[in-house]
Each structure stands twice: as C-alpha cells, then as structure tokens.
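Feature request disguised as a bug report, sorry. It would help if multi-protein outputs had a clear separator. Right now it looks like this:
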Amino acid sequence: MNWVQLGGSLVAILALAGIARWLKLGESHIADEATARRFAEEALAGFVAGPAIVAPGGGAALVAGGGAVALVKRHGAKVSVRRLIPPLSLREAVEGVTVETGERMFGPVTLHGVVGDDIRALEQAAQVRWA
C-alpha cells in the first residue's frame, strides 16, 4: 500500500462520516421534551403527544398522550418506542424509576434521576386528549 492510497482512503472515510453526521444518521439522543414527543408521534400511529418526562442524559423518556403513555428509549443508534396503558408497573430505587414494559424483548427501562410521583402525574395527564 502506498501513501496515496492511504491518504485517499482516509479522506473517503472522513467524507462518509461527515455525510452521516450531516444527515443525522444514528442520532438517538433524546435531548429534550420536544424530541421525545417527536419520536413518539413518528413511531406510534395516531399518537398525539402531550407532556413528557426526559431522563437526564437522554437515555429514556415517557410521553403522555390520548389515554396512553409512550415509552421512548435509546437502543444503540436508534430509538425504540412502545405504547403502554396506565397504570404503569413501576419499581422505584435510589437512582431512578424502572418501568416494566411486560415485553421480554424490549425489557424494563430505567429513567435515572426521575421520581415515581412525576411518572404518576404523567399517567394522570395521559388521560386527557392532547390536540
């Protein structure tokens, strides 16, 4: 391998990385409530998002809407969303609250830095139709 090939390969890799960043491919950070609402509405048919709780760090979020709660979690380079019907099954711990989804493949989701009272208030808000 000569230096021209090495340099050309490096430039090509950096160009592809720049294009992926520009297209926002693999962006799975749940930055704020608006982002969580957008992910929930895009993933769940007919879901109209209302109030949301985002765990610090952007790893997971809960979004209320139309009698249901959307559970949004970062899953590698993507985001996974599930529709849950209140009352939610919760386990509280010092680090945060774990929401049991009832799905073995999706698994339980821990919202670090969130307290159970906030989630119970969100469940109440989910009963209201958000338009």
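(second protein starts here, but nothing in the output says so)
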Amino acid sequence: MNMRHNLNLSIVRIGAFFLLLLCVGCNAKEGRIKKEKESTSYHKLGLAHLSETPPNIQKAYVEFLKAVEADRRNHEAFYALGHVYFQRQEYTKAIEAFKKALSLDPNYSEAANYLGKAFEFAGREAEAILAYQEAIKNLQYATPQLPHWNLGLIYLKQKKYDTALAELKEVLQIEPQNAVVLRQIGEIYIEMGRPQEARPFFERLITLSPESDSAKEAQIKLETIANNEGKNGDL
C-alpha cells in the first residue's frame, strides 16, 4: 500500500510540476505578446509624429525609444530610431541602430541602405560601400536603385568613373526615365573626355522633359559637343 501510495503521490507531483511549467510558459508568452503590442503602439505613434507638418522629431524620438525598450526584438523600431539619429546628425548612434535592425533581420535591405548613408556621412566610405552592396544582394529588395545610386555617387567622388557608370546604369535598368541619372551619366562621360557617349543620354533627357531646366542644360551640352566635333572636322 505504501509503495502504491508513494507512486501515486509521485505521479501527482510530476503532473503538478508540468502544469506549473505550462502556466509559467503561458504567462511568459502572454507577457511577450503584451510587450510586442506595446512596442508596436509606440512605434506607430512615433511614425505619426514624423508625418506631422513639420515633422516632430523629438516626440518621434521619445516614442521610438519606448518601442525598443518595450521590445528589443522590434527591428522596425530600431530602424526608425536610426532615422531619427541620422536626422539629428548623430551618425555613430544611427549606425548602431541600423546595425541592430540588421542583426534582428539580416534581409532588412532598407536598414542596410541607410546604414551605408550613415557610414558615408560619418566619413567612412569603405564601410558605406560594403553596406550598400549588402543591400543590393537581397533579390527581394523592392528599391535596389537606391543603393546603386548611392554607390555611383561614392565612386564618382573617388573618380572611379567606369565603376560609377556601371552603378548608375543599373539604376536606369530599373528607372529608365530617371532624368537625374540620365544627366549624371552624360556629365560623367564628358568629364572622362568621351562626349560622344554622353550624347544619347542627353538626348533621352531632352525627350523625357523638354521644358525642364535640366533639358535646357542638356541641349547646351549637345550644342557644345556638336561645335567641338565641327572644329575637329575642320582640322
């Protein structure tokens, strides 16, 4: 009888133990869900402050801080916080926030692109290039033209013209009617001493928006190219 009684008692205790574990797990899950909801609410409120006219950066900053404190796994809140730091020109803090967002979601290409911008403004071009390249690697990234453009401008500043052109032409593959990129490519070819290759890009720009200031400038460039060709032909 004692053995049976002890066995039953052990079974009851084991059952109670597992029931306790189950309750603890449920409470932890409920607490987690509550934290996630709080964080999401703070994040949305911060975004609302940014959409005000003018944007209320300080109030947004406070809400984003609350969001990351409530849930340290909210990658979107860290991304938003990085934006605020970037706007405040606190680039080191922006870099940390964007890196945290990426550590939580390695495929968060928007964060990688803005990490590149933060590195660039902090004067860390080599790291900026790597961040932009990481953003482009994600084939599901909806706007890869952004890091391609950013890379093109860095390479242009470094006078790596061929590499800059390659990046800017990637932008044109995605946005063939981007007047800014058409003009920039034409300018690079002229700077390289290859005006003939600039011609089709200026012509496309004029066709795209003939009344714009950019088109008028492009027309002047084309006339200069033509005059130079005429002079060379007379020699």
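Even a blank line would do. Unrelated, but nice: The chain has a mean pLDDT of 90.
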